[in-house]
Amino acid sequence: MVKTTNYKALKERVINLELKIKEIIDRLEFLGQEIVKRPAESNVSVTIPEIKVETPSVSDFPVPTEYRGIVNQLLNQDFGIKIEPADGSSFLFTVIVPDKYSPTTLAQRKMLGGNDIRPKVITHVEGENGVRLWTERVFNNFNSEIKAAIIADRKI
User: Fold this and answer.
1) 114, 105 in Cβ contact below 8 A?
2) Domain tally for the chain?
3) 119: closest CA among 80, 69, 65?
């Protein structure tokens, strides 16, 4: 079976399509001329100073309020927390010790990246209990003078 086509209607469609394409090209050329006609912006250089703020309590991942509460209760609000994923079933929980409580020297802190950090991998199953045990161990690792200072600085 041979299919017949209405060539006259097809020819009209092609002509209409050519007209629309020409119209679009004319519009694009006009837009291009408008862009070229606009005056170039003056070379004004504005220097924006880079402000870098480092806060030890900021983590790449959100810190659950329960973990923050445990650290505040057992240590105090001056201690920072950082949480990073270790694998699918655990996370790296890091207590960041403020300089005023740190028994480490400045050279030792520089070696550790500028902070006295106490990291521990805790499984998600351990969760709050693991955080509590690690925070207690960090606290018990301080000498009695530092423990007294930490307790004195707790906010009730």
Assistant:
1) no
2) 1
3) 80
For residue 44, what pLDDT band results from cuts at 50, 70 and 90? low
User: Does residue 90 form part of some domain?
Assistant: yes
pTM of the model: 0.59
Convert the pLDDT of each residue in 72-131 to its tens digit: 999 999 999 999 988 888 999 999 999 889 888 888 878 877 888 899 999 999 999 999
Report DSSP letters for the chain, one per residue: -PPP--HHHHHHHHHHHHHHHHHHHHHHHHHHHHHHHSPPPP-------------TT--SSPPPHHHHHHHHHHS-TTSEEEEEEEETTEEEEEEEE-TTT--S-HHHHHHTTSSEEEEEEEETTTHHHHHHHHHHHHHHTS-HHHHHHHHHT---
Flag whether 79 is in a domain. Answer: yes
